[in-house]
Fold this sequence. Notes:
Blueprint: E1 26-29, E2 36-39, E3 45-46, E4 54-63, E5 76-85
Amino acid sequence: xxxxxxxxxxxxxxxxxxxxxxxxxxxxxxxxxxxxxxxxxxxxxxxxxxxxxxxxxxxxxxxxxxxxxxxxxxxxxxxxxxxxxxxxxx
Length: 90
């Protein structure tokens, strides 16, 4: 009688790491400023730290054959995306 070997990965398994409970945060709209704020379980405003800014742009390029004096052959269109992100403070 042959015995089936356990898959090799099961020998590497261990117990799950100990976890902690995260506090419950809820986004709400401040009725006076109309700005979203985050509140904790007791209704206190929570500061989540600074956030960086980023910009993104799509620049298109077009290639037309010939010197432009007369209609040319097929043209080629392409685009290039740029993306810049500032460092966030916090």
